[in-house]
Amino acid sequence: METFLSDIRGQFGEYYDTLVAITPRLLIALVLLVVFWYISYYVKRLSTSRLQKNMNDSLLASFFARLIGSLIFILGLLFVLRFWGLTGMVGSILAGAGITAFVIGFALKDIGENFLAGILLAFKRPFRIGDTIEIVGVQGRVVALNLRDTQIKTFDGKDVYMPNGTIVKSPLTNFTIDGFLRHGFDIKIPAKSDYDALLKQIEIEVNRVEGVLKGRRKTSIQVKDISGGTVVITILFWVDTFTKRVPATHVKNKVMLTIQKLVDSW
User: Please, what are the domains in the chain?
Assistant: First the structure.
């Protein structure tokens, strides 16, 4: 029994001595990881600011900044592995397929796929920050393109993080890629009205609303249905989503209320 207890004490003593021996190296490694994380974060912020000033595409600038920050952190991780004496592991990683392969191998397969899809999206640029898009039934405004996913803010306030791989492989609708968006709504007009005069007045009132575009993208009024003496018309008009002075949703609300008041008083 005493021999057994002596063996246990000896084994724990060896573990303790090993722990004491590696503790300084472990603390230094943790400090180095924190330092490299801070450097990558600072460089990412600095790169975002500089790239957005020199590039017209804020989406591409933001993506490159995140990529630079991630590469710096990966280099820091490789340095820590070398510090721990794991040079064989570092050598095999670098010799195998480079840092990109390390990223894909370090993560799961779908993460690697989404990472490469993010690069394709950054260069293809089917949308920009602030664009209104719809993808696999999710409609909202693009907030950010990350290394793995794209953040979309829906109109009811939800944040959806769509995997980049899904976006690349699915049909995507961009409602505001050129800044112009057409709104439309239906309304019933009173029976036995002076239809020509009413339609002309409706067009005038729509064009009076601030934010409604004129000229090449002019207002259009179409008769949609005639049933039981009731005439249903469709009113179509264009807005510029790039302007910040009058939000597009505000313009639509103003047009609808204005026309409803006009029809009620006719």
Answer: 2-106 (no CATH), 127-174 (2.30.30.60), 180-265 (3.30.70.100)
